Amino acid sequence: MLCRRRHNTWDITKLAGPIKGKYFDCYMMVDIYSRFIVGAHVHTTEAGTLAVEMMKEIFGIHGVPDVVHADRGTSMTSKTVAALLSDLEVTRSHSRPRVSNDNPYSEALFKTLKYGPEFPARFASVHDASTFISGFVDWYNHHHQHSGIGFHTPANVHFGHATNIAKERSATLAAARARNPERFTTNTDPKILALPDEAWINRPMETTTTEAA
């Protein structure tokens, strides 16, 4: 049986506070295959110890991933984060030095967050920022139909519901073709509705392992 490795990526983005020069730090980790946000914390500062706190919470809920990717920021390369991942035998992956697009999943996620129509110019407090991020995470995971995963929600992919949903979609399309064949040019589902086979950042030379079913 082919086993998909669990590969998470994380990053920190700045959220503007109540006055110029005041920012809050949003720590966010996502499963790159399902695009499911497995955890998000908002703090008044950036620190490796706070990242470790978030990771311990995430790993306790969702299990320990095989790989964790991050850029080369101070918190991402901190000894506290490195020690935790080493103790848990998690493979660490980092973006190349001075390369801004080696963490595309986190960057795309933050763009979706900040370009949304409800994203405020400033947050009055860290509590307000945390409340907003919690609402965003709920919407993104459970309601956002993501184009990168066949217009499924991240939650449906993450928790294994997408396959049955895809079958239902196929049945609906087949019924529509049978009723109005002149409206369709093919007998197959559009590729954009298919789930990706796998997802990687810094893909190693050999990524497939075979295990007994």
Question: How does this structure look, described?
Answer:
It is a single chain. With 213 residues, the chain is of the alpha/beta class. It folds into 2 domains: 7-149, 2-Layer Sandwich (Nucleotidyltransferase, domain 5), CATH 3.30.420; 158-193. Helices cover 35% and strands 16% of the residues. It has helices at 48-62, 79-87, 104-114, 126-142, 154-158, 162-179, and strands at residues 7-16, 23-31, 37-43, 67-70, 91-94. Strand 2 and strand 3 (37-43) form a beta hairpin. The longest helix is centred in the last third of the chain and has 18 residues, at 162-179. Mean pLDDT is 88; it is low at 207-213.
Report the portion of residues in β strands: 15-25%
CATH 4th-level superfamily of the largest domain: Ribonuclease H-like superfamily/Ribonuclease H
Structural class estimated from helices and strands: alpha/beta
> What is the arithmetic mean of pLDDT?
88
CATH class of the largest domain: Alpha Beta
What profile does the largest beta sheet have?
5 strands, mixed
| Alpha carbon gyration radius | 20 Å
CATH topology of the largest domain: Nucleotidyltransferase, domain 5
Order of helices and strands: EEEHEHEHHHH
The 3D shape can be described as: globular
As a percent range, the share of helical residues equals 25-40%
**Total beta-strand segments:** 5
Instruction: Provide the spatial order of strands within the biggest beta sheet.
Output: 3-2-1-4-5
Count of helices?
6
User: Which second-level CATH architecture of the largest domain applies?
Assistant: 2-Layer Sandwich
Query: What are the low-pLDDT stretches, counting only 5+ consecutive residues below 50?
Result: 207-213
End-to-end Cα distance, whole Å, is 5 Å
How many domains make up the 3D coordinates? 2
